[in-house]
Amino acid sequence: MSTPDAPETPDTTAGVPAGAATAAAVAPDAPVLSVRDLSVSFRSGDRTVHAVDHLSYDLAAGEVLAVVGESGCGKSVAAMAVMGLLPPTAGITGSIRLAGRELAGAGDKELGRVRGKDIAMIFQEPMTSLNPVLTVGRQIGEVLRRHQGLTKKQARARAVELLDLVGIPAPRQRIDEYPHQLSGGMRQRVMIAVAVACDPAVLIADEPTTALDVTVQAGILEVLQSLRERLGTAVVLITHDLGVVADIADRVLVMYAGRPVEQAPVHELFEGPRHPYTRGLLGAVLRPGVVAGRGVAAGPGAVLEPGVAAAPGAALRPAGKRRLPEIPGLVPSLDEQPDACTFAPRCAFADDQCTSGRPGFKAVAADVGADAAHRAACWHPHDVALQRINQEAGQ
Amino acid sequence: MMKLPAPRNPMAAYLLTRLRQCVITLILVSVVVFAGIRALPGDPALALAGEERSPEALAAIRAEYGLDDNIVIQYGRFVGHALTGDLGTSSRTGLPVSDAIAEALPVTLELAALSLLFAVVLGIGAGVVAAVRRGRPEEWLANAVALLGLSVPTFWLGIVLVLGFAIAVPVFAASGYVPFGTDPLDNLRRMVLPAVVLGSGLAAVVMRQTRAAMLDSLSADYIRTARAKGLSRREVIGGHALRNSLVTVVTVLGLQLGHLISGAVVTEQIFVLPGFGKLTIDAVFTRDYATLQGVVLCTSAAYILINLLVDVAYSAIDPRIRLGGAAR
């Protein structure tokens, strides 16, 4: 796995517990979380919606995997499936192994012993994710009492430490406060404190900064990053914010219409995306001081803007009024599982092969300088890469 | 809410404000009670006079009871006496009204408390089950029982229960009252059926509200968080969902407790209990102004007290009310 050159976060927190290596309990290189062919479908009436369609990924200890894609692409549903939080009406197939233990199909009781202890989750809505009638201390404490058997007093002392760890000032006062007395950013920090209370091997963060002000977002990301460094927690970061991805992810998984379409180390992805959808996604990001290029997958002459953090210098373009590129067409309905590339109707490279067969999620060949960990579900990954190279040469 | 000089304890400040409001309400109630009863048709002197209805006798009675005085003076006298616990003398029995009330009050209080207990335990229990077991036979059963509880008239349910549990299978007694202090077991034997009859409607209302509030709570984000923490089903339902649902349930309870008091009138008639209901009806039929005033005043005070308790319960359950300020 490649390591990101994201800036080191300053140590503003204290009271790090020992045991940062929980994740490495199995074998040094074995993934802590291994998802294989995960599919999730919902039946409503006579329709079946395939929210997630054969998703596979591995998460190494201490790694940050960003799962990106637009709303409705199945990234949150996949995360909820991993946590076992989907309603009983959801049909789940495939395998979810956490440190060697199979979670798919496990009962609520069995999952209850794992959730909050070995795998934890924080959610998009900090305003509503905490119980309004219980104190912050009680809400952090109950997870400690449940999984670590602490007494009320011990749990309280530990909760103070945790509040401090996630950067909440005056934790001794805050612990007796109720969620409505805290700001959104503070509530999300409390959620993080709850999530990391038992030092889980895996933390799933579902759009943790989406509902927050931009200034607060940076603080939350900083906390996540510092926890990864100090506790060795592996993080699955679900987001649609590519700036966040560039900042803290090691690896990126791109999803489209329930299917994985591309997976690569973060630099690989920003520098050489192989799936036309990824190219479109990267092109559709508005960046201050940068004039956007035109539609990427749409037509010739398109310009890919590399991620700011990945290559800030390359992002400069001559000034001019151009529209932010968008991907033409609409996301397909999730009712069907076509035996074809789901992106084909919107893709400039699509041919007969794309509409008659589903592309495998395969490693892209090294002939254009790709990393072995770079996978794409595309029939024409080379054409995409070549077009980009040609364009850059022509600039 | 009134601005208070930085109260050290927000709860105390809140209570103080509420108490002040209660006193004002009580004063208004006393005026309305007094004026309302004076406005009723019929002459109390006539009722008191009995057979002897000569103008002289009536005048003597009016003078004795102060019925000739200016209405404002009568009100002042009424309030002054009421404050010292003297609610006047019953024109029917010639005994102090406060004695009659002191005798009847425990009966009604016990009946109301038992009914409330029955309604809360059954209502909340069935409501939680109906919400948690949504779409299963348990929910249908709970809904059916609730519908029955709401639609069956009190007197009919009373008669059926008496036939069933006091006559066919004589586990409980059908009528009469024995003070709890005299014989607790006999007391309960006589109070269970009235309490069930009086509480059934309330239980149904509480059940339906609990079910709705629980369904609401169970789909909230914080329940997802609680589950993500690995909490047991019991902790998720009892510790998180129910606690949040109780705010709604307490509101409904507060509103419905009034009905409990008025319902007691009918129930006490069915089971021949010497409570407030019986006292009220007797007073109305004999135009016993003093007793009626006392009864209505006490009942109103009870309403006000219940409302205060409901508000206190709210703030105990929901910190957003206790500590003020909406969500930021």
Automatic annotation (TrEMBL), chain A:
BP GO terms, sorted: peptide transport
Keyword Membrane (UniProt): yes
Domain ABC transporter: 35-282
Gene3D superfamilies: P-loop containing nucleotide triphosphate hydrolases
Subcellular location: Cell membrane
Alphabetized UniProt keyword annotations: ATP-binding, Cell membrane, Membrane, Nucleotide-binding, Transport
A Pfam entry, by short name: oligo_HPY
GO cellular component: plasma membrane
Signal sequence, start to end: none
Topology versus the membrane: Peripheral membrane protein
InterPro entries to which the protein is assigned, alphabetical: AAA+_ATPase (IPR003593), ABC_Ni/Peptide_Import (IPR050388), ABC_transporter-like_ATP-bd (IPR003439), ABC_transporter-like_CS (IPR017871), Oligopep_ABC_C (IPR013563), P-loop_NTPase (IPR027417)
Molecular functions (GO terms): ATP binding; ATP hydrolysis activity
Predominant location: membrane
Domain of life: Bacteria
Family affiliation: Belongs to the ABC transporter superfamily.
Classification via PANTHER family: DIPEPTIDE TRANSPORT ATP-BINDING PROTEIN DPPD, OLIGOPEPTIDE TRANSPORT ATP-BINDING PROTEIN APPD
The protein, known as: ABC transporter ATP-binding protein
Organism: Streptomyces himalayensis subsp. himalayensis
Lineage: Bacteria, Bacillati, Actinomycetota, Actinomycetes, Kitasatosporales
